[in-house]
Amino acid sequence: MSLLSTQALVKSFGDNRAVNNVDFVVRQGEVLALIGSNGAGKTTLVNLVSGLYRADSGRIVFEEKDVTSASSYGRIQAGIARSFQLVNLFDQLTCADNVALSIFAREGKTLKLAALASRDRAVWEEAQGVLRQFGLDSKASILAGAISHGERKLLDVAVAYALKPKLLFLDEPTSGVSTREKAPIMDIVSAIVRAGGITVVIIEHDMDIVFRYSERIVVMHQGSILADGSPDDIRRNDEVTTTLIGTHVTGESAY
Amino acid sequence: MPKNRPLLMVLAWLIPVAIALLAAPYVVGPFHTLTLMYGLVFGIGVLGFNLLLGYTGLLSFGHSAYFGAGAYTVAFMVKYFKIASMELFLAGSVLVSVVISLVFGIVCVRYTRIFFGILTLALSQVLWSLAFKFFWVTGGTDGLRVPTPSLLGMSPGTDKMEFLAFQYYYYVLAVFAVCVAVMWVIVHSPFGKALQAIRDNETRAEFIGIRIRRFRLIAFVVSGAFAGLAGALWAPLNGLATPDILVWTFSGEIVFMAVLGGFHNFIGPIVGAMAFTYLKTYAVGLTVYWQLALGTVLVVLVLALPKGIMGLVELIVARLRRPR
After folding, report:
1. Looking at residue B156, what DSSP letter applies?
2. The domain at B5-321 falls in which architecture?
3. Contacts of B101 (CB under 8 A, 6+ apart)
4. Could you give the CA distance from residue B173 to residue B238 in angstroms, rounded to a whole number?
5. Residue B77: what pLDDT?
6. pTM of the complete model
7. ipTM above 0.95, yes or no
8. Which residues of B lie closer than 8 Å to A, measured between beta carbons?
């Protein structure tokens, strides 16, 4: 059963058609990888689905509801969350504050002016629990801007996860992280989202990560979908290999 | 969970400051009491201003509009409705400044950075030109007289100086304390945290479900209400509401106060308002080139102390605490 589908989705920037008539389907409960070379349209597609960009034409359907014209707020309410390619955190707030803000927002409590945030024990306990899941509980009272890049990547996902989404887009969750740190980060993220039954779309350039953690792979090239299938299908697809030439698509894990 | 500063540490500086403020009229003369009162009044206004600058990341160059709106509301209530109650002045001023900041805010919060600053400045100048040109209503450059009001139903005595330096001082001090407490709660509320999130990273804030413009607008209105309240308290103290308090240079002074005290710190704007008031008072008394003196202070401040007086205090405290 499809959780999300796009129909003939188009987005252009000037003469460049970044997303070109894309029909993209995400099924309930799966971990899907969206791959392709730089400029293939992966992040633009995620930006369209999450509401950062408006589509020029086409439809976006989430849980059988048309969300094409919904605001980013409306899509978050519907259950779509995302992390960012470049870490996007509230650097002058603590790690606990970062996660707690997602919980406050999810619970509709951010408009409370006359109550101290620190008094809401349920929120802080949940935030501490989320940080513990991501192995960041010891960083709770440290400013988000002061932790390591790998930890910031995890916190970025934790902030999105705390929204309790039905569909979570992870835009290059291990970019800029050392090879040694990639697998531990993905192990943590993968275990958490699978345990929570969250449908995940991972955008990733690291083919070892893609083949190890995803159940289905969608390949994009020049704004269109080039291939869609299981990791084995993609591994055997000559067109994908030719298009992504120079990219390691054997799926033989380096970890 | 965020670690609150231990209560004892807060009380260690809060109690002496409270005692000093309470004892001031009996220890220092009326001149210093009045100067202190100006500092407290500006402190309320700059506290409101800093909800936008320090907590939301929006630099307003038009807060004279809301301060002036508060002051002129008092003057109009006196002139046209013969009202003398300070409580009604406060209520009326807050109401008017809320309405004006709501209207201006709807326009301004659609923008950020320099565009936001220029819009706030331009809109404040509209109010200034109205006060300046509609002299048959506003008194023009002569302004409107504001007599001493009644406080909590009690009429002022015949000695105006004694009234201002005692009864009115304690009234202002009480309102100031309430304003500080209210602002403390606001910036430490979930709403305050959301504003800080918007300041730090607008895109991420949007993608956790914070409606950016709505939050900015509420912050703008709360900020305007504080400035309006300060304007209402200032009017009887000054005895006159003139277009000078609506002009953009006064907005600049509000920015100066926040930068002087340190807008990264909750009490920085209050310290800045107090320091600026004394600095200006003495600079004006010492030299006709007082603007030059203030300008020099601002340049030195930005270059040497970008986090203001409270930034320096924090630095000194951190060094003293560092193990040797």
Report:
1. P
2. Orthogonal Bundle (1.10)
3. B65, B66, B220, B221, B223, B224, B225, B227, B228
4. 16
5. 92
6. 0.87
7. no
8. 1-4, 185-186, 188-194, 196-197, 199-201, 203-211, 215, 218, 222
